[in-house]
Give the backbone structure.
Amino acid sequence: MAIVLVLVLIVVGSVLFHLLSPWWWTPIASNWDYIDNTIIISFWITGIVFAAVVLFMAYCVFRFRHREGNRAAYEPENKRLESWLMIATAAGVTALLVPGLFVWSRFVNVPSDAADIEVIGQQWQWSFRLPGKDGKLGTSDTRIVSAENPLGIIPGDPNGQDDIVVEAADLHLPVGKPVKVLLRSIDVLHDFYIPEFRAKMDMIPGSVTYFWFTPTRTGNFQVLCAELCGQGHPLMHGVVMVDTEQDYLAWLGQQQTFAQLSAPKQTGSANQPSEKTMASSLDVAAKLEKLEAR
Amino acid sequence: MVDVTPADAVPPAEVAEMELYHPHSWWTKYVFSQDAKVIAVQYSATATAIGLVALMLSWLMRLQLGFPGTFDFITPEAYYQFITMHGMIMVIYLLTALFLGGFGNYLIPLMVGARDMVFPYVNMLSYWVYLLAVLVLVSSFFAPGGPTGAGWTLYPPQAITSGTPGGQDWGIILMLSSLILFIIGFTMGGLNYVVTVLQGRTRGMTLMRLPLTVWGIFTATVMALLAFPALFVACVMMLLDRLLGTSFFMPAIVEMGEQLQHNGGSPILFQHLFWFFGHPEVYIVALPAFGIVSDLISTHARKNIFGYRMMVWAIIAIGALSFVVWAHHMYVSGMNPYFGFFFATTTLIIAVPTAIKVYNWVLTLWRGDIHLTIPMLFALAFIVTFVNGGLTGLFLGNVVVDVPLSDTMFVVAHFHMVMGVAPILVIFGAIYHWYPKVTGRMLNETLGRFHFWVTFLGAYLIFFPMHYLGLMGVPRRYAELTDMNIMTESAHHLNSFISIMAFIVGFAQMVFLFNLIWSIRHGREAGGNPWRATTLEWQTPETPPAHGNFGKDLPIVYRWAYDYSVPGAKEDFIPQNVPGTFGPSREPA
């Protein structure tokens, strides 16, 4: 009989855990509260089904447990009951699927006013590229990636000359403006993931993938890699700062374009891409060594 | 509904009695045996042994997650090797091998009333190739660079590049070779299971009289025969990429500042091939569990399984649908996002036949005569964990909900609950149920109940809270959870709690192993049919069944497998090989 008590406790305990435990999603910072709402619908529907099935089972075990002289009923089928259960299940599934697909259609249809930005993943750091004054990103090719041109921007493409390159540093975004994030990798799979934005997408070497979102509050958000990318995977952190329009423009003014970065170096230049690449890669390598040495 | 009479139920024998190979020596009787029952025990023992390795690996990774920074030897490199080998061993070398090679071999011939598998020699080879696959897998622990740390999904490019443990050493080569061997071995066994079910049934054993255990294993085997070739191809191509420098899955890559000599390959093609195998694989593990648990519930509730025909069709529908849902593992892989509409719809449709199965298990308990034996307890625990894990599948299958949750601990919690904990609880229930037939003795009851309670409650306490870490955004496959802004202090405490539970549950498995070994000699004598069950394996003249299973004459089947508590019958069960009708037979026509 302990099992009956335990089954009831599992239902009660799970519901209480859900309601009272301190572990819940981080406060949202993007327009994807639609997704949060779909999750809430899912919790309600599945929670009710879970409680109903387990409690019914507990009742059956209690009511029909073996006692001397008991005999089970003989009822191979009940077509009416089976049909009703199938219809009810189909209805529940539809109630989950319809809002889900509705929100998905929003997710895949990028609004026309979304600004392109590019995120480039490599073992184990994030770099970013903004389109510059012409609003267009220049074409790129992994095969021309080098220490001088770490993002593989094709020098002959005029669209690329004014692209702003943010290499192995923080990305800033203006609050309230939709962005289409174009994702690229130059080595293995990565996944650009910021828990507060709810959205994420893999980046694949050889392809450009995308998703879109609108940041809805200013702040400092940690970027995580969500696709296993080798032993530095858990250390592949980055930062996205969502700024007010004013702060954003101030930051943007300090950034350098591809043309500036690829110009012949002057003595005393503050920006030396080749060394910087080295430095940031070494940074992760050093962290890894530290971990291994432990 | 027609009354079942021996006259119309027993057709003349269509297939001649098979000639059995009779062993001549100790070697051919116990080692290179062609008897499916011996092969079943060999498969089970090997799977259990390698499963223990996977258990140890899970302890090691939980040490790291629960107590980060405490154990110096768990480097990120080692951590990734642990998770990769744990996952691969559990899914392929333990669950698939145990359900199909273990239970399939033991139960199919006995339950369908055959003397052995149809191709005993190929069946024997199947085991030895499987053993070789396991040995190749284990050898990677001792190879230079250690085993691969690419994650059990082995996604290229990282699986074969130098940033991943074993990527440019032996690890990945041995892993791919071992998988290729496993598939070869499985195919030989799988052909046997399918042909034996279709061709080896005794007289009167129509398809709609098969116990659901056989239906589950049979359908899973058909699926495996169709799904494993995709993995086979993927493994061969990745081996070529790694060894000969081809570019099936490798585009142009700059790795650590160096241009690699690959160009034009598609990493996402591998994912399609992998999951074309990988999703059916979930049901290759689940369907045998579905079948077995149906029989456990029916037998121990002394009641026919509710809605037998619906159960059979649900198994077949799930098997078929599971081939058109694979890309729900790839919603955020960067494939064309419009695929999401299709795959979310097919995925959620699977919930319908799956839910029917759950309802029918629970409705079998309704107005039953429920004996709370250990197999029944495990069956009840299965329903709880399977429903829980199945319902969170509705989150992850619903494409947009998957976006925030994919690659987080929510996924880890979900698939462990639904295809780790739930099927393993069925395996335990099944072992307590059939151990008396295999050995002639019962497993110890006290140890068994201890094993049940710790395993069931412990596993629930491990995986239920874990979902909420994922909801918080904690990614999976993180060897280090340091400097994580989203993780509160209490989330780290929750991880420590989960780890402690994992050690306790692991310990309970040692008690179970002790029980398995101890009871072979010291268990209570079981007799031929201790559970008073209807199916043919309990009607053998000897227990354990001798070579050839059924003595001089094969049994003739007169009824379905679920004649429990038939009105008018003296006993509360009527074995399948007992002729005659008792009152109005309501076997589904």
About this structure: Residues 385-526 of chain B form one domain. Residues 76-112 of chain B form the longest helix (37 residues).
